[in-house]
């Protein structure tokens, strides 16, 4: 085993070390601590890109922690899916961290940097782990960090929303544990690959229990992904927290989606008898309602943050709708759209933050404002971000939606899927057109001058960088969609994953 | 009455109480509800390794049947995590009560003065 093989743990180790160092340094030297934290994000991004390049040879790499082989020890598994999610999370983390440092959002309370790094640690760990209980632990790590981040800066409204957010997620964790317990009781293993094999060999009397466990697990992932009717926590939380934190949270709903893509084909896949594709009948209807409600919320939102939160909800709904077909083609399209939706959702929050900083007492309310500094630049950024978020040409959201429509041509529910995706796009266009024209076009009649200190343009950097990533995704849509297609094929070849994990000689 | 029935009904009663309390409007009751729920989950996880009496978990000379040690490790992890979570939710509930002057979960103060 060479040193390069150990790179798989880097996305977990780097944030852990950075968090501790930032915590110590921040006490005395704030600037140095912030710089270290940002450097940690960049280092994580570099490691993730290196892993992405490594994973592009289609091999599934297994890293046995402590040299304990699967299924007895905990393994980290690097395949195309986890590598892509790692890069996405690290890229988003770096952009958001840069924005927090530039706008001094990290100074509004204590311990922003350590919490942020632990959030990245939890995200990266969830993407890498091959063990279901370990997935629970990493979920908890990222949730605990997110509680701290969500309350960063404080305020009564934020605390109230925070209580609801924490309570909902604690109940979700309890359900996760029940599902894990059921699966362990049935199969006697927690390793996902091993579990898939054993579920297929269950005696017929246990099929019902396996179905219940599968549905409970999906319910937990749907809670994280904010699927209707488990979505109620999201708009309130995202609208009450700081926009820069909400931008990072744009990837949190995608963790739920990732967990479904990882667990369902592997543990509840085609070969697993009675438990095969157990979440499918529930997923599509819920996703349709989520998409409608999300983009409907964009239309009815009263603030930029609220409409951005609903846009995140709607994009998750449309991508789960396509995913629910559980075919490689649909998964490939959904993965492409997932990358776009994450970046666009984060960019929406960052632009909302930039607008809020300039509009003084008007905050993020969607009302006409007197002219503010940098109105044209912010307006253009908002326009481009909305185009990406709704999926209009020329940006990658359009390509993603096109891929999703093409992938579901032969699906049995094709009319419903197409009607939902196209209909919600129209609703989204109207919603964003309304908010954009109210804020950036309509002059306020009369009205007092703005109480706004923000004059510099430095804070436009991070939203522009997020937008730049979306433009790059558009330009390189060909290679990226080839990559997601290969990823989907790898995800659906569950036997290769099982073979790689269970016969691994790695880590010794 | 068998051991299985006793454990199952205990879990059921805890879950029922936990769900009822978590749905209440005041944060203190919700925190208690979450605690009851986590007790139930811990008991459930413990029972997942099958209910056995007087069996060694790892190794003992001349013993053929063992208790499953893994659920015990899982329960330990779950207890630690839920303990931290409960502490956090207590602090959060207290803080939110002090900041907003109301311990309603949805943040709307009681209009009518309740006892």
TrEMBL record, chain A:
The keyword Transmembrane helix applies. The chain crosses the membrane at residues 6-25, 32-54, 60-78, 85-105, 125-150, 162-187, 207-227, 239-261, 281-301, 308-329, 335-356, 377-396, 416-433. Keywords: Cell membrane, Membrane, Transmembrane, Transmembrane helix. It is found in: Cell membrane; Membrane. One of its GO terms (molecular function) is NADH dehydrogenase (ubiquinone) activity. Residues 130-419 form the NADH:quinone oxidoreductase/Mrp antiporter transmembrane domain. It holds the Pfam family Proton_antipo_M. NCBIfam families: PRK12666.1. Signal peptide: none annotated. Belongs to the CPA3 antiporters (TC 2.A.63) subunit D family. This is Monovalent cation/H+ antiporter subunit D. InterPro entries: CPA3_Na-H_Antiporter_D (IPR050586), NADH_UbQ_OxRdtase (IPR003918), ND/Mrp_TM (IPR001750).
